């Protein structure tokens, strides 16, 4: 652990110094106040490596896999971890899987499902999905209101005490740091844990990254752009409440609004357009942008919808058996984690109580036998031709095309 942050008192002291550099978080100021730009800084440029270093793959949140998804599925291994898994998973280089448990532990599994290391937070369970920063650190916020990063080998890098408030989103930045939305504040941290700047952010629904900009979308549908040394500027409004599926592509924000339609907002021209108007289905929080501008969404009752870049429907596939769809009115509509697509149009998904599946570009649905879990909380590609899911019951499952070809049920492990 860095000597700068050896004790809770030191943690608080360092954060207080950082706050002094940028102004009080409770001052009500609406502008960002950066630290001295003449101070030496270490800069890492780029995005984190790995199949899925953050929720919905990367800072654009397009849910587009960096690797090819399998066309068939078989269970390769299962691993049980201590406690429940209440958050999504992150996948780094080599297929390593970062898991946060309700027991206040962060674990990293290797590509074979074996535990590489366990980190005990000492500050409660993670309240955000783990992320992997641009320089490889594993980051998360705990119930004890601390932002903690851990080196790829499981050793603590730093921890920072945060102001009170619900953490709404975490966005890794290209310089190895991160932006956190806490309550109605935005905090930008350097890779060493120093607070660089802050600003008023509103009731944040999602944070996205575009070049040097942070894009903020609020629950009420306001879209703003923040360069860390300037005031966040409003680019426009979505015409309703943002209910999920926020993504960024070619300077356009895509969003599911009022759970019924998909709109786009151009950050430069401020033009708002409705891409998909859906009067018959309630849309879940899944939205994926594939190659050629294809848009994939999922309805609350488990129907995959695909539209081309002009908004024309080109594919419709039921992800659940007909008897399950018929009974949808009498059960809780829990859609599971957001789906993932790849450049060929294959989509990977998992629904509560059903086997993990993929939908090919032609609409064919293929499932992985014996891969169901009652409450899936995470879905991620894990290198070429592999998928991992995390189940609330404390089980991580990896499926692959190779295992499907052997017909093997896969290995099982318990920690």
Plain-language structure description:
A hairpin with a 5-residue loop joins strand 20 and strand 21 (272-277). The chain has helices spanning 8-22, 322-326, 401-406, and strands spanning 74-80, 90-91, 97-100, 105-109, 115-120, 131-132, 138-141, 146-150, 156-161, 167-172, 178-182, 185-189, 195-200, 204-210, 213-218, 222-226, 233-237, 242-249, 252-257, 261-266, 272-277, 283-289, 295-299, 303-307, 313-318, 340-341, 347-349, 357-359, 365-367, 376-381, 386-391, 395-400, 411-414. Residues 1-40, 328-332 and 409-415 have low confidence and may be disordered. The strands form eight sheets. The protein has a five-stranded mixed β-sheet. A four-stranded antiparallel β-sheet has the order 2-3-4-5, with no helix packed on it. It has a four-stranded antiparallel β-sheet with strand order 6-7-8-9. The protein has one domain (3-29, 47-414): YVTN repeat-like/Quinoprotein amine dehydrogenase (Methylamine Dehydrogenase, Chain H). The protein is globular and about 50 Å long. With 415 residues, it is mainly beta. The two termini are 26 Å apart. It is built from three helices and 33 strands.
CATH superfamily: YVTN repeat-like/Quinoprotein amine dehydrogenase
Radius of gyration, rounded? 21 Å
Shape: globular
User: Major β-sheet, in short?
Assistant: 5 strands, mixed
CA distance, first residue to last residue: 26 Å
Helix content: under 10%
Text of the CATH class = Mainly Beta
Biggest sheet: strands side by side, in what order?
Answer: 30-31-32-1-33
Tell me the CATH architecture: 7 Propeller
Give me the number of helical elements: 3
Structural class: mainly beta
Roughly what is the average pLDDT, rounded to an integer?
A: 85
Count the domains: 1
Low-confidence stretches: 1-40, 328-332, 409-415
């Amino acid at each position: 652990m860095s000597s700068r942050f050896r004790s809770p008192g030191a943690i608080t002291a360092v954060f207080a110094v950082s706050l002094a550099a940028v102004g009080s978080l409770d001052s009500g100021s609406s502008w960002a106040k950066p630290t001295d730009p003449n101070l030496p800084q270490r800069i890492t440029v780029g995005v984190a490596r790995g199949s899925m270093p953050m929720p919905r793959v990367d800072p654009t949140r397009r849910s587009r896999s960096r690797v090819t998804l399998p066309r068939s599925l078989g269970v390769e291994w299962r691993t049980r971890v201590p406690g429940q898994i209440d958050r999504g998973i992150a996948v780094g280089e080599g297929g390593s899987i970062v898991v946060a448990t309700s027991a206040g532990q962060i674990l990293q599994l290797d590509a074979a499902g074996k535990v590489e290391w366990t980190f005990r937070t000492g500050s409660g369970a993670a309240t955000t999905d783990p992320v992997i920063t641009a320089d490889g650190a594993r980051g998360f916020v705990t119930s004890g209101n601390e932002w903690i990063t851990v080196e790829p080998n499981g050793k603590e890098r730093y921890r920072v005490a945060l102001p009170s408030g619900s953490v709404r989103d975490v966005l890794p930045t290209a310089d190895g740091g991160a932006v956190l939305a806490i309550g109605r504040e935005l905090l930008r941290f350097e890779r060493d844990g120093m607070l660089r700047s802050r600003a008023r952010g509103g009731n944040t629904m999602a944070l996205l990254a575009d070049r040097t900009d942070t894009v903020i979308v609020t629950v009420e549908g306001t879209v703003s752009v923040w360069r860390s040394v300037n005031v966040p500027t409003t680019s426009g409004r979505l015409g309703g409440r943002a209910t999920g599926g926020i993504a960024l592509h070619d300077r356009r924000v895509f969003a599911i609004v009022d759970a019924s339609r998909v709109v786009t907002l151009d950050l430069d021209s401020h033009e708002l357009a409705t891409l998909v108007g859906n009067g018959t289905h309630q849309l879940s929080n899944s939205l994926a942008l594939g190659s050629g501008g294809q848009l994939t969404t999922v309805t609350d009752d488990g129907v995959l919808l695909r539209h081309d870049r002009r908004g024309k429907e080109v594919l419709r596939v039921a992800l659940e058996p007909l008897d399950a769809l018929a009974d949808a009115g009498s059960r809780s509509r829990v859609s599971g984690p957001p789906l993932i697509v790849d450049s060929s149009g294959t989509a990977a998904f998992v629904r509560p109580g059903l086997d993990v599946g993929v939908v090919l570009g032609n609409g064919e649905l293929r499932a992985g036998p014996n891969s169901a879990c009652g409450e899936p909380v995470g879905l991620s590609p894990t290198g070429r031709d592999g998928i991992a899911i995390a189940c609330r019951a404390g089980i991580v499952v990896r499926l692959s095309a190779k295992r499907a070809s052997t017909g093997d049920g896969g290995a099982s492990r318990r920690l």
